[in-house]
Design a protein that fits this description.
- The protein is 31% helix and 21% strand.
- It has a seven-stranded mixed sheet, with helices on both faces. Strands 7-6-8-5-9 form a five-stranded mixed sheet.
- A hairpin with a 2-residue loop joins β11 and β12.
- The N and C termini lie far apart (41 Å).
Length: 299
Amino acid sequence: MRHLLPVFIALTALTALTTLSALGGAAPARSAEVKLNMVFVPASEKGDEDDYVNLIKIIESQTGFTIKAIKVTDYNAAVEAMRAGRAHIGWYGGKSYILAAEHADAEAFAAGIRKGDTDATYFNYFVVRKDSPLRTLADVRGKTLALNHIGSTSGDLIPQVELSKVKLVTSNRDHFKNVFYAGSHDACLLAVLNKHADVCGMSSRNFDSRLADKTFSLEQVRIIHRSDPVPPPPLAYSKKLPQAVRDKIKAATLAAHKFGKIGGYGGEMERYVEVTDADYDLLRAVDKLLKKMKKEAKK
């Protein structure tokens, strides 16, 4: 995948034809010299580090590197961990990635395609209770809105973009009764189910995962709005790593599906495909436009 199609892309799924020879032949002996930390922010209450266990094991077996997963509580901490050299690989949301690229020398290299999906993109959903009178995005004016983390792509940035299309601004107190950040996509959804919020803006991947594990049923909720496709949350490594190390990590990740079951953002993955920093230029443009709109709204 080299290009994202506007608006909000349709990522073309590229099959990684990486062979064992590209990984340096047979699985190498573990090297005590290359020890890496991988940082991530939980998008779910279910413990997303479990989604990466097999992927990390496969990368370790194919590269000889040792990789330790480190969970942090928010996106700023994930960016800071790589900036400070405490993390060498990161799982970022789209918006947090562009911050990591700017401030922490991060470089996106892969994104997962879920089983049954045709590409790596996903969506932002606005979800209400089944018995809610809200039918369209414009109907949320004057209501209580729950989001994920500040800095989340599908739980902050994209919801704000979608709301701007119906001339609503989250920072405008005249537009909402209340806007709060629940701390995760799951918590955002539960806020609606428990009647602490009228509507929640969340990731379609988390919605699907919680539906699959029966946290809720479709008899309880309705989706009143779906965004255009959103650039996928990428795996990124630090550009401070030697190029040879980065190349091995990327090759092992793109070929990981050949060696066992793999997971990532949103659960089980079919495979990982290559992404580049340029694939996130659209989000940079959107973020810049949103900041401009907020500034003008305050005048």
